[in-house]
Design goal:
homodimer; 192 residues; Arc Repressor Mutant, subunit A; Tetracycline Repressor, domain 2; 9 helices; DNA-binding
Chain lengths: 192, 192
DNA sequence: TGCTAAACGGAACATTGTTCCGTATAAAAC
DNA sequence: GTTTTATACGGAACAATGTTCCGTTTAGCA
C-alpha cells in the first residue's frame, strides 16, 4: 500500500473530456428549451451518456447548472464596463439593468433556483455575487458621483430587484419586464 | 337505471365536512412552516386522513393551495379600499404595495408557483387577478387623477412587479423588500 | 334495521434526483 | 505489444413525492 507520488498526475482521460463536453453542450440546449428544471436524464440521454457518467462529472444537479451558466454570468458582468465607457453614468446603469434582466429572464428557472436557499446552489450563487456585485456597484457609484442617482441605494437591493423581476416568468406581454425595470430605474434618480 | 331527481340533493356527509375542515387547517399550518412546496402527505397526516381523502377534496395540489389562500387574497384586496379612505392617493398606493409585498413574501413559494405557468394554478391565478387587479387599479387611477403619479403605468405591471419582488425569497436582511418596493413607488411619481 | 351512494384509506404507479457497484477502457509501465 | 491499474462508464436500484385506483367503510335515508 504505497502512497501515490504527489507529482506527475495522470492525464485526464480523453473519453472523460469528450463526455464532459457533450454533457455541457446537451445541458445548454436542454435548459434553453425546457428550463433548468429539466430532468437530468434528459440531459444525459441527449449527450449520449449514462446517468452515472453525468453524476460523476456533476455530483449535483446544481453543479451542472452552475457549469453551464458560469460563462454567461461572466459575460453579463463584463458588459458593465463596456456600457460605462460608452454611455453617461445614469444611462449606463439603466442599460445594464435591462441587460441583466434579459439575461435572467432567458434562463428560465435560474433565479428562483438561485434564491431558493438550497445549499446546493451556494457555489453558483457565490460566483454570481462575486462577479455581478462589483459590476453593479461600479455603475451605481459612478451614477451617484455624477449626481444622477440618489446616494442611499444599496447595490444588493438592485441586484435582487432586477433578478426578481427578470425571473418572474411573466412573458405574457412583450416589454413588460423592460417597462418595470425602467420604472425602477426612474425611482433611483436623484431628486433635486 | 333511473335518473336521480334533481331536487332534494343528499346533504353533505358530516365526516366529509369534518375532513375538509381538518385538511384546510392542517394545510394552512404546514404551509406556514414548510412553504407551499410541502409534501401533500404531510398535510394529510397532520389532518389525520388518508391521501385518498385529500385527493378527493382537492384533485390537485394546486387546488389545496388555492383553497387555503383564497381568503387571504380577498383580505389583501379589501385592504385597498380602507387605505384609499384613510390616506392621500399616493400614500395609499405606496402603502398598499407594501402590504401586498408582505402578503406575497409570507407565502413562501406561492408566487413562483403562481407564475410557473403550470396550468394547475389557473384557478388561483384567475381569482388572484380578479380580486387584486381591481384593487390596484382603483388606487392607481386615484393617484393619477390627483396628479401624483404618471399616467402611463399599466396596473398589471405593478401587480407583477410587486409580486415578483415579494416572492423573491430574499429575507436575508430585514427591510430589503420594503426598500425596493419604496424605490419602485418613487419611480411612479409624476415628474413636474 | 337494511340499503346505497358517498367517502375513506392506503397500496400502487409514475416521475425525478441520487447512489452504488460491476464492467469496460485509456493511459502508463514494462 | 502486452500487462497493469486507476479511472470512467452505464444503468439498475433507492428515495421522495405527486397522483390514481379500487376494495372497504359508513353516514344518511327509508
Amino acid at each position: 500500500m504505497d502512497v501515490k507520488p504527489a507529482g506527475k498526475e495522470r492525464r485526464v482521460r480523453a473519453d472523460a473530456q469528450r463526455n464532459l463536453d457533450a454533457l455541457l453542450q446537451a445541458a445548454k440546449a436542454v435548459f434553453v428549451t425546457s428550463g433548468v428544471d429539466a430532468p437530468v436524464r434528459e440531459v444525459a440521454e441527449k449527450a449520449g451518456v449514462g446517468i452515472g457518467t453525468l453524476y460523476r462529472h456533476f455530483p449535483q444537479r446544481a453543479d451542472l447548472i452552475a457549469a453551464v451558466f458560469r460563462r454567461e454570468i461572466d459575460a453579463c458582468a463584463d458588459a458593465a464596463a463596456v456600457l460605462a465607457a460608452e454611455h453617461p453614468p445614469f444611462e449606463a446603469l439603466a442599460l445594464w439593468m435591462q441587460r441583466y434582466a434579459v439575461f435572467v429572464a432567458t434562463k428560465k428557472g435560474l433565479a428562483p433556483a438561485l434564491h431558493s436557499g438550497d445549499t446546493a446552489f451556494c457555489t453558483l450563487r457565490a460566483h454570481f455575487e462575486e462577479r455581478v456585485r462589483p459590476a453593479i456597484k461600479m455603475l451605481l457609484d459612478a451614477a451617484v458621483a455624477a449626481g444622477a442617482v440618489r446616494p442611499d441605494v444599496d447595490p444588493d437591493d438592485l441586484i435582487i430587484a432586477v433578478s426578481s423581476l427578470g425571473s418572474s416568468g411573466y412573458t405574457d406581454k412583450p416589454g413588460r419586464v423592460a417597462r418595470i425595470v425602467a420604472l425602477l430605474a426612474d425611482g433611483l434618480r436623484a431628486h433635486p
